[in-house]
User: Fold DUF5633 domain-containing protein from Aerococcus kribbianus.
Amino acid sequence: MNFKKILFSTVATTAAASLLFVTDASLAQAETAYDTEAAAIEAGEAQYGEGNVSATMGADGKYYWTANPGATVVENEEEVVENNETGFTTAEAAEEAAKVALENDSVNNSFSVSQGANGNYFYALSPVEATEEVVENNETGFTTAEAAEEAAKAALENDPINNSFSVSQGANGNYFYVLSPVEAEETAEEEVVADNEINGYPTKEEAEAAAKKALENDPINKSFTVAQGANGNYFYLLSPLESEETSEKEEGKEESKGEKDSEEEAKKEEAKKEEAKKAAAVKEAKKEEAKKAAEAAPEKEAKAALPATGAVATPAILGLALASVGSVFAFGKKED
Assistant:
């Protein structure tokens, strides 16, 4: 028995049977072979869907896909073409579509893109020229102090004269830099001068203190208010009107003055009453003295009738006086 012939016949028969199987499994793909298994599977899944095919190698060394049992052909959905009626899924897609539309548009010159209520993006064409991007510079100022600093540093790189810079905020709220030939102190930070015209004051208390100082030499204004500016700092505003606090103080002074006047009036009234009492007492004392003087008058007259030759009358004089009295008494008695 020739085993070589038997073995060769068996291999040939198996290869033919394999090719026949693949051909029967998919007549539409019978003549299409793929170099890799992955390529064969991808082609099969395009018709039957993902996971519904497998690939086997044929006798020719190529790969053929075979649909799994029960798999059916999947109908390909029509590709959805994005447009400006239904919108674009991304803003970039809308921008690209707008640019293409402008290429054949003799009227419009620019476009804008916005997001619609459905979440998609839409473009709108316009005959107005697109505004160019505004480049910040030191003439119109920079929106942030950091941007001004960066611009100043870039300017110093090509400046053979200046060596440092300072940044301050302008009246329009933007920041400007000023170059200087003086070397900047590396250890010291650039100090922003607080003022009421440009930079403002970092705290409300500092603004109030500055306002009070300004009022000291101001013949017109009498009060002030403090408010926070757009840059976050505080500014004061002087006013010729009296402040509420001052008015309250003045009212307090008036009230105090009124109370003081009332007290003074009360003291005066009390003093008047006291003087009246004293005057009445003096008058009463004078009356008493006059009464006593009137009562003492006869006694004084009797004493005045006595001789005034000495402090004590002599016995002779006294005797003579008594004799005279006795004579009078006797004379009077004889007449009876």
